[in-house]
Amino acid sequence: MTRRLLSIWLPRLASDVSLRRRPVEGPFALTLRAGNTDHLHCLNHVAEAGGLHRGMSLADARAILPELATRPADLVREAAVLATLRRWASRYAPMVAADGPDGLVADITGVAHLFGGEEEMRGDLHARLERQGFTVVSAIAGTRGAAHALSRHGGGGIVPEGLLAQGIGFLPVRALRIDHATAEALSRVGLNRISDLLPLPRAPLVRRFGKGLVLRLDQALGHQPEPVAAEADEPHFGVRMTLPEPIGLQDDVRAGLARLLDQLCAKLAQHEKGARRLRLELGRVDHSAAEVEIGLARPMRDPVRIAALFERGIAEIDSGFGIDSFRLTAPVTEPLAPEQTGAGPALREGDALADLVTRLCNRVGFDHVLRYLPATSKIPERSFLVAPAAYSEPAEDISRKGPPRPGTIFPPEPVVTANDRSATPPASFRWRGISLSTLRATGPERIAPEWWFDDPDWRTGLRDYWRIETRQGLQLWIYHTPQAPGWRVQGVFE
Fold it and tell me: Domain range holding 287?
């Protein structure tokens, strides 16, 4: 059976995606920042008709079309839409692969007759994509290179079997997917079209222009193989269950959840993944739905521990006239290596803390449960970091060298002394309206400001910190600033 390939080019994929959500009348372009300059990333047909093109700077584009509307490009969303279209295009062929950031290639060998022929298949493809708001150009040929060249440089079409040379010969040499320097070198010697290369011997072409040119030419003509390597789809971590009779008791919901968790966790283990977010959807007989969603502080695939985290959500479910379907998915997963099981402890080190963090986060929010982490700075305000507990790991070693630091640190508070200019700790002073007297003083610890940070609180210069034990029982962290005389308290030892 003769091999046939379909090349699908979406020349305005990024702008079409953006305009589907928020249409714009008139010229429109997406911009992408490179260095210190914004460039046009993708344009609609009105902007192209106005003389704009991809890659030109935004300043030049506005000089030509002051009414140009722009938005920043979203490369992640663009890639996600292309991946979705790749899965959608599997209706036309079993093997579909991405072809650059804005194209697809499908092996339609032995498939076209199901649509009434190749022309009818292209017509159906164009009609469906245009209804979704996409601009599309497609071509069918016996090789991937020929289909790619015809779709991007020939306006699309069909190359009949056995006529590859004639079908793409009129196209420019850059249609062979060669680099710009090689295309310019070919143009300088008068080789502007693919047909100009066909009668030439291969050896001189290789010596002058490199192996890449001859490889691309042979691939387009079918002399060298070029397979369609379709990417494997990401596994979908979801299981469902339909019940023969509606249920309404919480115990029945727990039993159904336990059965689905066993299946889902087995699938997660097969792919060495752990769930970070789980969603349980319960379908009622009146076609409404209830949903329970939980997040996890660390990747997990233990069905017993996960089931316990669903308890609060299950207790709040309204079963209505009965629940007749379950669907459990893990929309967010992370790698989780296999673990040794046996007669050891049921929980790994840190699992109990992770479960506690998970429960708290599901109640108050994952950004509201925080932990302190050490930082490499001598400045008291920068000696620690505050991070969400669910998205960070506790520090293994929080020990530090040097004098001890207080357990409580706050913004500096002035104290009243008889002599502010003295560099020795005062014998008596007032702080927060309390009269205190010094019993013992340890120090000083001199800390200089970090010159690479412009911190207004440290513009007064270096500080001499002392640990003061008062006769009243308080132990304070107090400092003196030689450049701006005065004493201030910044911490309290427990």
Answer: 238-362
